[in-house]
Amino acid sequence: PSSTTISPISISSTPFEVTPSVLLEYTPLSKPYGIELSTSLDATQFANLQTSAEGGSADSSYFIGLAYLYGLGGQKSSPVKAFRYFRTSASQGHGDAMCATGILLYYGWGVGRDTKGAVAWFNAASEANVPRGHWLLGRAYYEGRVSKVPDFDEAGRLFGLAAEEGVGEAMYHLGVMFEYGLISDKDSTGIDEGMPRNSNTPYSSNFKKAAEMYEEAWGKHRVAEAGYHLALMHAYGRGMPQNAVKASDLFRVLANDHVHAGAMRYLGIFAVYGHGMPDDVSDYQKAVVWFDKCARVNDETISGKCKLEREEIRQAVDRANGRIDDMM
C-alpha cells in the first residue's frame, strides 16, 4: 500500500543567492554610517557627496567609496573606483577607510593583490586604535600573511584588543584558538609577561572558554561561524553538556537565516540518524531536503559533499521502496 512507501522527494536546481564574502566584510564598516547594500542613495545625493569629497572631506571620500563598492547613487559597482576613494580618505587619517583600503588589497578585488600593502593599512588602523584594524591585522598574523608562518601569539593579542572593543569576529577567532589549543587564557589579554612570544607552542584545549567566546560572538553580534561552532559544541558536548536538540535548533537558525551550508549539512546528518528529531526517529525525507538545500549553496568545501549525500539517501530510499513492493 502507498501508506508504507517512503515518499519520493523532488529537488530544485535553483541556486541560493549568497552575498560575496568580501562584501560582507564591509558591513561592519558601513552600517554604523547608515550605508548598506540596500541603502537608497539618489544621483543628487551622490553628486553632493562627490563635491564634498573633492573639497577635501575624508568622510565624503569614504562614503563615495562605499557607494561605488555597493553600486549606490545610480553608479555601477566598481571596486576600482571604490579603492581610489578609500585610499584618499585613508591617507587623510580616516580609520575605517584604512581598513576598507586594506581589505581590497588583501583579496585583490578590483585591484592587484598586495598582501604587504594590505597589512600596512591594517597596521596603520590598529595603531590608530581602530577596533576592526586590530581584528584585520590579527587575522593577517593568524593566517600567516605577515610572515611565512602564522603568529598565533600576536594574533591572539590583537584579537583580544578587538574583542574588548566589541568586534564579534575577533571573539569567534579567539574561540577557535581556545578550542584548538592555540592560545592560553592570559594570552588573549596580552598581560602575561612570562609567556614566550612568537613560539606558537600549542596549549591545552579550553573547550569551556571557547564555548563562551562563541556564545558571545553569536549572541551579541550574530557572527554566523561562531553560531556554527557553538552548535557543534552542543552536538559533541565540548565545553558543555551534549544536547542534540539545542544543536539542531541552532543549525536550523543558521540554515534559514544565514544560508549556512555547513548547518544545512548537519541538519541532514541529524535527520538521517534521528539526532534532535522527535523521539530520536530518523527522517530520510528531511535529510534529503537539507542535503539538497546545502548542495545549492555555492560553497566549494561543503556543497559537493551534500550532493553525494543527497543522492546516497535518495538511492537508499528507492531501494527500500523496491523491497517494500517486493514484499507486497
Instruction: Report helical residue fraction.
Output: 55-70%
Question: What is the mean predicted local confidence, pLDDT?
Answer: 87
The string of secondary-structure elements, in order, is HHHHHHHHHHHHHHHH
First-residue to last-residue Cα separation = 8 Å
How many helices in DSSP terms? 16
Oligomer: single chain
Q: What is the alpha-carbon Rg in Å?
A: 24 Å
Q: What would you call the shape?
A: globular
**How many extended strands?**
0
What kind of sheet is the major sheet?
none
Proportion of β residues? under 5%
Question: What would you call the structural class?
Answer: mainly alpha
Poorly predicted spans: 1-13, 187-201
Describe the overall structure.
This protein has 328 residues and is an all-alpha fold. It contains 16 helices and no strands. α11 crosses α12 (224-236). The radius of gyration is 24 Å and the shape is globular.
Features:
0% strand; mainly alpha; 328 residues; single chain; 62% helix
The gist of it:
The chain has helices at residues 21-24, 27-30, 43-54, 58-70, 79-91, 95-107, 115-127, 131-142, 152-164, 168-179, 207-221, 224-236, 244-258, 261-273, 284-295, 303-327. The protein is mostly helical and 328 residues long. α5 crosses α6 (95-107), α7 packs across α8 (131-142) and α8 packs antiparallel against α9.
What's the helix and strand layout?
Blueprint: H1 21-24, H2 27-30, H3 43-54, H4 58-70, H5 79-91, H6 95-107, H7 115-127, H8 131-142, H9 152-164, H10 168-179, H11 207-221, H12 224-236, H13 244-258, H14 261-273, H15 284-295, H16 303-327
Helix pairs in contact: 3-4, 4-5, 5-6, 6-7, 7-8, 8-9, 9-10, 10-11, 11-12, 12-13, 13-14, 14-15, 15-16
